[in-house]
Specification:
Layout lengths: L5 H6 L7 E4 L11 E6 L7 H11 L2 E6 L3 H10 L8 E6 L3 H6 L3 E2 L23 E13 H6 L8 H4 L8 E4 L5 H28 L3 E3 L2 H8 L4 H6 L5 E5 L2 H7 L10 E18 L5 H11 L2 H6 L1 H4 L2 E2 L8 H6 L11 H20 L1
Parallel strand pairs: 2-3, 2-4, 7-8, 7-9
Antiparallel strand pairs: 1-3, 4-10, 5-10, 6-9, 6-10, 6-11
Helix pairs in contact: 7-15
């Protein structure tokens, strides 16, 4: 989710262009003792859990974080003949067909896949990708701003186009950002193939602001986030995640009793994230071990409070704080992968012409 750097929101970190984490200086190029993960910049894991993987598997983990999910997927496709690593994490259902159609992954059925819910296994016949987490892309609102202005926050897609919310919403570019694309797909699911352009015309007329990525939208433009307040953000509505409010609580210097931000529950789109063994990976054995680890109970239970997403493994415990401040949407918009594949690129082109020009 996230496609979604939740921890960066709370602690005010900036974008990571291309950085390496983990131990050692070795890369995946022929080093059988290192497994290299390529991801978007939302990747996070507890140090203890990473050490457990390294101890149990015998591999050192190296992580290359490469910007927003959309950017990371595009770069992985461009470098697929000579990949940067062994495993890619962070391709979601909005971009899955692009990765699969470009032959980014080789098949692998992970150990523990039988404990992953069937609804998340969108490539279950070929096993080119393994589901890891899910979350909901939703509009978040700044509670204090709406209280101060004695205005009820929006709840639905339709509300966002009302005059009362003029010049209040910031969203991400659907062509470059995973949450931006998810929000576009959510509006298409809500209004249909023919109706969504008219809806976006209304949003544009109502002053929606579009920025390149989630980090800028949430941590700079949004008035309700820790980073946004420091940056002087003046937009009290932002496209983010249903799980963003708990990040604001749990990473605050002084923990508030309630989340300072809320979720417009009628604007949510369900996002599922996957990992896959890169087609030309040098260390396929290590890559397979790491994918097994991603669906293990230990990692799945570690994930919510590190990446602020929900586990896909049945029986994985979800922290009480997480569910209290960021429950998953009860009725999120969804769209079949085949429909996304058939329409995404044309919809993004149409959206770009309609909204950005």
């Amino acid at each position: 989710m996230h496609h979604k750097t939740f921890v960066a929101v709370a602690v005010g970190l900036g974008l990571v262009g291309l950085s390496a984490c983990g131990s050692g200086e070795s890369t995946s190029s022929g080093d059988s003792k290192t497994v290299t993960l390529v991801s978007h910049d939302s990747w996070a894991v507890s140090k203890k859990v990473q050490r457990d993987f390294e101890k149990q598997s015998g591999y050192k983990l190296r992580v290359l974080e490469d910007g927003d999910a959309g950017q990371a997927v595009n770069k992985a496709i461009l470098t697929k003949d000579h990949p940067q690593g062994d495993v890619f994490f962070g391709v979601d259902n909005t971009l899955l067909s692009r990765a699969l159609d470009n032959g980014l992954f080789q098949p692998y059925a992970a150990k523990g896949l039988d404990k992953v819910g069937a609804a998340y296994q969108l490539d279950k016949d070929k096993h080119r990708v393994t589901p890891v987490d899910y979350g909901d892309i939703c509009v978040n609102y700044d509670k204090a701003w709406f209280d101060k202005h004695k205005l009820a926050p929006p709840r639905t897609f339709a509300d966002l186009a009302e005059p009362a919310y003029k010049d209040l919403l910031v969203t991400e570019n659907a062509a470059t950002s995973s949450p931006g694309l998810g929000f576009l797909l959510g509006s298409a699911a809500e209004y249909g193939d023919q109706g969504w352009p008219d809806y976006w015309k209304k949003l544009k007329a109502n002053g929606v602001k579009v920025v390149d990525g989630w980090e800028q939208a949430y941590s700079q433009e949004f008035s309700g986030s820790t980073g946004g307040r420091k940056a002087g953000g003046d937009r009290p509505l932002v496209v983010s995640y249903a799980s963003s409010p708990p990040a604001e609580v749990l990473y605050a210097k002084k923990r508030p009793g309630t989340a300072p931000t809320g979720v417009a529950t009628g604007t949510c789109f369900r996002q599922i994230e996957f990992a896959g063994l890169l087609d030309n990976a040098r260390n396929t054995k290590g890559g397979k071990a790491f994918i097994d680890f991603l669906v293990s109970k230990e990692f799945q239970e570690d994930m919510p409070l590190n990446m602020y997403v929900y586990p896909v493994a049945q029986g994985a415990r979800i922290p009480a704080e997480f569910t209290e401040y960021g429950p998953a949407a009860e009725h999120p918009e969804t769209m079949a992968p085949g429909k996304i594949a058939a329409n995404r690129d044309q919809w993004v082109k149409s959206w770009t012409s309609l909204v950005l020009r």
